[in-house]
Every structure is written in C-alpha cells, then in structure tokens.
User: What shape does this take?
Amino acid sequence: MTIRRRITRIVKANRSAAVEAKQDPRVEAQNAQAAQRTLLDQARRGAADVAAHHHRVGLAANEAAAYLNRVEAAVAAAVRRGDDDAARAAIRESMTARRRLDTLTAQLREAEQQARRLHEDVQRLEHRVRQNAMEYDAMVARRAAAQAAIGVHEALASSSREAASIEAARRSAELEVRRFEAQARAREELSWSDPSSPRLQQAFEELEAEASVQQQLDELKRRDHRGGPPAQY
Assistant: This one.
C-alpha cells in the first residue's frame, strides 16, 4: 500500500470518527438529564436508607435509656435493702447499659447529621435537575423560535424574489400592451392615408353627400327668395 493511500484512509477514518462523535445537542442534553435523574433516584434511596437507619438507632437508644433507668432503679432498690452484692451487680450492669446508651446516642447524632446532609444534598440535586430541565426547555423553545425566524426570513426572501418576478412580468405585459396600442394607432393612421381603404372611401362619400345636401338647401333658399316654384328632384 502506498503512502498516499495510507494517508487517504487515515483522513477518511478521522472524518468518520468525527461524524460519529458529533451528536445532536438536544440528544446530549437529554442524556445528561437522564443521568442526573438516575443520580437523583440513587441519592433519594440513600437518604431513605439513612433515615431508616436513624429511626432504628433512635428506637434502640430509647430502649437502652429505658433499660438503664430500670437498672438504676434496681441499684437504688438493692441499696435500700442493704443487698451489696445485688447493688454491685446492678451497678456493673448499669455501667454496661450506659456505655451502650452513649454509643447509641453518638450513632444517633451521627445518623441525624448524615440524614440532614443527605437531605440537603438531595434538595440541591433536585433543584439542579429542575433548573437544567427548565434551561433545556428554554433551549428547545429558543431553537424552535430560531427555526421559525429562519423560515419567516426565507419566506420573505422568496416573496421578494416572487415580487420581483411579478413586477418584471407586469412591465413586460405593459410593454406588450403599449406595443399593441401603438400598432392599432398606426393602422388607424394608415387607414386614413390609404386612398383605397374602405374607411377613407366612406368618408369621401359622406362628404360628397353632405355637399349635395348643402347645394340643394342653397338652391331651395334662392328659389324661395325669388318666389319661384320649388325645384323638382
């Protein structure tokens, strides 16, 4: 394989990879939103687990506190009876119960803090997801508006071109009408200048008839003035 063919194949491969990597921004935004919703669901489940753990630790701490109260009551009762052995055993048990209560209390505080932090994190994540969704909707609306504007501009440009074509056709038609009118006027003028044209002959006949009528009228007036009989025609 020649070097030129190798370079050509490499360039084609790079172009194909670039085309495959290039995606519709809307698809990328939708994928990002889906990933955020997945993370939000995971965070909610984690917060729910921590809340459940906090509840269980709270129940255990309440039970430990109640047990410690009973043991301390047993210590006091043993002391009142003068039963030192029972009092010592109850004291040892109360110490164990107190350590358990302290441990559970610390766990309860830690679980409460963790639940609070997770709740705040979930709220922030929910706000972020809502914000991204609104921004995505705004982006889609802006894209649709831009496409509509492009369509309107293209329609206006097409309308302008059509208007120019219509104006050119109108001017062409007007020139043709003027040409026909000029031809009609020219033919009308020629009909008066041609001695053999029927129109000119008719005009001459009308003039001759009018002259004959005028001659007869003048003759009648002269005879009437002299008092003679009317002329016979």
Summary: The helical segments are 3-21, 25-81, 84-193, 198-226. The CA atoms of residues 47 and 118 lie 6 Å apart. Residues 197-225 form one domain.
